[in-house]
Amino acid sequence: xxxxxxxxxxxxxxxxxxxxxxxxxxxxxxxxxxRPRPEAFVNGVKNRRITGVERKAKLLIFxxxxxxxxxxxxxxxxxxxxxxxxxPDDYVHVVLKFExxxxxxxxxxxxxGYMQYVESQEELDKILEKYGPExxxxxxxxxxxxxxxxxSRPIKLVLLDQNRxxxxxxxxxxDALFLAKIHPRTPANSLSASQSSSLLKAIxxxxxxxLKYGGASDQWYRQVHGEKGSYQEHFKVYGQAGQVxxxxxxxxxxxxxxxxxxxFCPQCQTL
DNA sequence: GATATCGCCTGAAGGC
DNA sequence: TGCCTTCAGGCGATAT
Length: 271
Prior knowledge:
This protein is an alpha+beta fold. The chain is built from seven helices and eleven strands.
């Protein structure tokens, strides 16, 4: 699933591929994937030039010669840069067509992802204001500790809460908690300043690793030319239930937390 | 206000 | 082989 490193990998590739291109047509077959409505989306983006591709947390922001559109890949979204005559891709539900037969295909197997036309900077700011700070940005150890002090919810769920900290998803939350030797159920406000600081460093470390390997390709995530990332070959605990911990040799456990698969080493990460 | 739960949605995997 | 059930999960809406 695309988290901050995966979305940033896509953003960097898209920046090279589609900035300066004008959207000459839009094809779609799933109304729910185009917001606010398909007609408004098409009217908003058609004949507009893409002037930049930015990112906030897991949200891609496409700057247009007039207005914006944003794209959330949710669980299984892919953005593929292809030529019109390239072989079809599976699960494609939106295609932005450019001049010179180039196109951006939005493939989404589970239909959770969406593209949304955003008319003004004010409207965009409203969308972005709900996101908390990003760990890779300018979040200091002190600010991070303050955020964690505000709630007694399990730390793993706090990391996944985009309103508090933006960009962390299930994979990197599991691996960062392992590196910081913190049990996923630990109440956030019970962490010491030193543990909180270690956790922030661990998040930065797994994000940097994720970026270095071009993201983690589970079943769905692909880069813009269809290639897989390789961070999945470097998972520390995510998806590793039953495998032995690299540090102590204990078997990695899987529990459910907030309805999501949660992986940890019961020896290295005690409550 | 904070927290917990539900529903969206479909492909893949496993059981029979 | 084919059908059925279970699992995966980000996030907004709704309930507690």
